[in-house]
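G., the chain you wanted modeled:
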Amino acid sequence: MDVSEMFDRMPFNERLGIEVIDIGDGYAIGELELGVEHSSNPDRVIAHGGVAYALADTVAGAAVVAANMTVTPTIDMRIDYLAPATGGTLRAEAEIVRNGNSVATVEVTVTDDEKRTIAMARGTYKTSGVTGETAWRDDPTA
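Predicted structure as tokens:
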């Protein structure tokens, strides 16, 4: 299974509507079409902050997996919300800024249809020492 297919088949991504549309060595781009189910406001669509966070974390993780071809769990992510997401499609662009022996750091920009920056995030991901059973594989010898 290639990296793109792995993220396409992730049940969480399917549930939220996250699509990884481009992925390569150290970068990824993903999108999510906002709907009422993503809203924190019962009267109109204003995306809950967790939606932008989930999109940023998923796309950053895809960039790290593509660069390292191994399981890369999230260690930490910090996000700054800069504008409300009020409809249309959110787009996250992630790029690795450092890919070390044990940890990768990724910067992510989340924008809306009007190219407004909705959020900026920085995440760290474990890139080595992940052995045995994980969320991605259940074969302890893998």
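The radius of gyration is 15 Å.

Shout if anything looks off.
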